[in-house]
Write a structure and sequence with these properties.
Elements lengths: L4 E9 L6 E9 L3 E8 L6 H15 L7 E5 L2 H16 L13 H14 L4 E5 L7 H14 L8 E3 L18 E3 L5 E4 L5 E6 L2 E5 L2 H8 L6 E5 L2 H10 L8
Parallel strand pairs: 1-4, 4-5
Antiparallel strand pairs: 1-2, 2-3, 3-6, 7-8, 9-10, 9-11
Helix pairs in contact: 1-3
Amino acid sequence: MVNPIVVFTDGAAKGNPGPGGWGVVIVTPDGHVTELGARAAGTTTNNQMELTGAIKALTELRGVPGALAIYTDSTYVIQGIRGWIHGWRKRGWKTATGGDVVNRDLWEQLDALVAARGRSSVEWHYVRGHAGTPGNERVDEIADGLAQGREITLYRGPLIGYPLPILDVPSDTAVPVRTSAAGGRTGPATKPYSYLSVVDGHFARHATWAECERRVKGRPGARFKKAMSQGDEAAILREWGIDPDRM
């Protein structure tokens, strides 16, 4: 995969429900940064604003080619779009217990945007909130500030002029604990099996994202991807024209 478009999203509601806001930062491989954000009309919830942030980011990037790496601190968004939504659709937008899916309208918008782009081209990454990740801290500042009614100056311009090390992300972005749609804990998240990269035609396998990122960062035409299992790794290699049996 060529370096992806990097996206950070967040949402906030003061009082939950209460006044809300959402924030987005988009970084393109050619070195351009776009910040987006808005205050919600009326009363809303944290989850509604988290979903809205992701929807606004994908809407902004409609027609812009390239894979997306979306970073969010919302396990609700990640686990919903990765897993829960498939069951909801099969059950006619009912939960496993027969209730109506909350925020169905937003989930349908997000699902349609992801499907239109190609599900395999959108990768979701979890980042812990308020843990010092620059991109997450910035979208939190945008969303929270707008929810409180503050004026927020949004940046559009070159990455070289952006005041934050926006591409500094954690090496482990797996969701730490899986939860059911009802909020119950179901055990630890699955960690990546490996990280793969190709630079100047040379393949490498990495144990951590930090190691992989060091190899591909700033290298034009570099390809990289996370594999969740041995089978997933083999499929990625075949996609890249590499025989996994020779690796």
